[in-house]
Amino acid sequence: MNDRHRSGLMGWLAAAVLAWLALAQPALAADDFLAPQDAYRYTIDAEGDRIVVHWKVAKGYYLYKKKMAVASTMATVQLAEPQWPKGEDHTDDYFGTQEIYRGNVEVPVAFTVHSGERPKKLALELKLQGCADAGLCYPPQRWKTEIDLPAAASQSGGSGFSSLFKSKSGAPGATQQQDDFLPPDEAFRFGAGMEKPDSVALTWVIAEDYYMYRDRLQVTTDTPGVTLGKLQLPKGQMKHDENFGNTEVYHEILEASLPIARPAGSGGTLDLKVTYQGCAEGGLCYNPIVKNVSLELPPSDTATTLPADAQPGAADASSTSRAPVAEQDKLASLIRDGNLFAVLATFFGLGILLSFTPCVLPMIPILSGIIVGQGGTVTPARGFSLAFTYVQGMALTYAAAGAAFVLAFKQAPQAFFQQPWIITLMTLLFVVLALAMFGAFTLQLPSSLQTKLTNVSNEQKSGTYVGTFIMGALSALVVTACVAPAIIAALSVISQTGQIARGAGALYATGLGMGVPLLIVGASAGSLLPKAGPWMDVVKSLFGVLFLAVAVYLAAPLLPESAVMLLWSLLAVLSGYWVFSLKARDGNPAAAPLRGMGLIAVVYGILLLIGAASGSKDPLKPLDRLAASGGGAGTQEHVLAFQRIKTVSDLENAVATAMAAGKPVMLDFYADWCVSCKEMEKFTFPDPGVQSALANAVLLQADVTANDDADKALMNRFEIFGPPTIAFYGADGVERKDFRLVGFVPAERFRDHVKAAFGS
């Protein structure tokens, strides 16, 4: 074989060997993982009244922080919460993104000897779980160990640590005799510590052949300012017990979490009374065991609240009593998980109900004015098409703007569009439209541009439809400043779950429902409106008056209440005088009923003027101040005395003060432009039953009219999108989230709701 052939053969063999090694490497790695004891080595040092666990994690391996624990298995020694160091974020296929430890890790743990002499040895159990970067994930590990304690005193004998944790898979031990049961504190070794500022970790190490009852666990506290939530327990094993029948029990180890709620800045000691009960498989059932635990509360700058499923008195799955679910939360759940057709149908129906509220009614004269402004004979088809275009502008804007604003600004678009300069422009727009209806001038394009569009205009009325669509969009943003449970539910789904299509679809269906009366008005335009002729000018003037009324309605939040009363008075007197002066076609005075309506309007305007002079602020009750001063039946209603707050700090201070006084709290989010807020102030809050239910409560009100940074921060604190929203706090200073109200609520229902919220 010559050198050329020899060289070629050697190269081929080298390539084959390298290829084999490359293919074999994964197989070799898969069979070459370290045992858990070698991958995660540890040593423990005792220093005074604390121990330090030193972990040495092998290269290519890591431990999950949340899967690690250190527990004392001695009843006389209690461990504090370990001081876990900061780990690193890691994402894997087993647990997603978790905090993990690599390399060398030190975990200090303080301990306390509760009674008796200091033991010579401390018996511990280490809990851990980790994985290898190559892909293997170990099952959870529980390792038992003992360490020598310095300055140890003599220790009484015992049954020994190993006797409590015999492996069920190992050699069986001798059968336990009836007269050889463990003491309760050895059969059920208990420990507690603060796992987070808002939760307590409770652990029981249960000896072999013993078990604990799930329904005999109870935790209470008398620490002021702290509210305990429902104990969060894992699922146990079902067992037929001679003492309690079929019941759920725990074996080996039980780890529970106890949520707590406390105000911002609270600290000191949390005193817990923990009661539990268990039995031995051999037949002995222990009396209930009571442990008193004192834990140091870690500092917290913010108030903590309880999750919805951990509220005080929250029911188990087997319980027939359930905490109420707020209406907006029910609707949000329907959007997220319900059948899409059912979602759209439900929100369409809710939109129809919203169409009869005061915040939607102004759209009817707007649309009617647009139709009347067409002049000539308006057929039902033409009226319906204009109405449909207007409703589409409104519904699509509800959907698109709602989704965009809640994603970008975490608030409903109506709050943004209630800025003074926007309201001023809209007010001027309706004044201009009213003057056009009065014939003061004709709204049209410049003649040069109008000539260029003549051909297009002769073929279609697209310009009219575009203007109508734009007016519908503006009405949705500025005129209909409504916040109702249906709208909040849709915005919540978009904001919290990212299901934009479902949330926007619900908003669109709501907008269509709100537009149903408008479609009826449009379809009936041909029969309700007069034919072309002199009376059409009168009708157009009438809608000019309605446009002026819309302008006053929009400007009201920007003006003093006395000025608003004067504007309504001026509008009523002038329009009434104009109607009273109308002439019939033959030149004689108009029909008596029509002139009577004009006279009534004049009289009402005069009453408004008298009411404004006497200090009245309600156009619907212009003489209420005079009645009050006269002591008659119309005596002025008592109003709720709200304490105004502006910032999150104001809120927390007010809630803390109320809690110290043992009083519940109601927080009302209000804005001058919020129609439903005005309804609550006019029809709900003055009700004697409502005032009686709120008599012992601290009443707070957040005026978010300005929508400035402080207002936004306060609304973000509650994850709400706009007023009216009412939140309720118990005397413990914890908000009852399931009792939140959105939108207008009648007095009777509100009274019952308050009693339930404060009694929960």
Instruction: Give, in spatial order, the strands making up the sheet with the most strands.
Output: 23-25-24-26-27
**What's the main sheet like?**
5 strands, mixed
Distance from first to last alpha carbon: 97 Å
Strand content: 15-25%
Helix content: 40-55%
Identify low-pLDDT runs: 1-30, 152-179, 314-323, 443-447, 449-463, 632-636
Helix and strand content put the structural class at alpha+beta
Oligomer: single chain
Task: Give the number of DSSP strands.
Answer: 27
Q: What is the residue-mean pLDDT, rounded to a whole number?
A: 76
What coarse outline follows from CA principal-axis ratios? elongated
The gyration radius over C-alpha positions equals: 37 Å
Total of helices: 25
Structure notes:
Helix 9 runs antiparallel to helix 17. 35% of the residues are buried. The chain has a five-stranded mixed sheet, sandwiched between helices. It has 25 helices and 27 strands. The protein is an alpha+beta fold and 760 residues long.
Topology diagram in text:
Layout: H1 3-30, H2 36-39, E1 40-47, E2 50-57, E3 61-64, E4 69-72, E5 77-79, E6 88-92, E7 96-101, E8 104-113, E9 121-128, E10 130-132, E11 141-148, H3 184-187, E12 188-196, E13 199-206, E14 210-213, E15 218-221, E16 227-228, E17 237-241, E18 245-250, E19 253-261, E20 269-276, E21 278-280, E22 289-296, H4 327-337, H5 340-354, H6 363-372, H7 380-409, H8 413-416, H9 420-437, H10 447-452, H11 454-459, H12 462-479, H13 485-497, H14 500-514, H15 516-523, H16 525-528, H17 534-555, H18 561-580, H19 592-614, H20 624-630, E23 643-645, H21 648-660, E24 665-670, H22 675-684, H23 688-693, E25 698-703, H24 709-718, E26 725-729, E27 741-742, H25 747-759
Parallel strand pairs: 23-25, 24-25
Antiparallel strand pairs: 1-2, 2-8, 3-7, 3-10, 4-9, 5-8, 6-7, 9-11, 12-13, 13-19, 14-18, 14-21, 15-20, 16-19, 17-18, 20-22, 24-26, 26-27
Helix pairs in contact: 4-13, 5-14, 6-15, 6-17, 7-12, 7-13, 7-14, 7-15, 9-17, 13-14, 17-18, 18-19
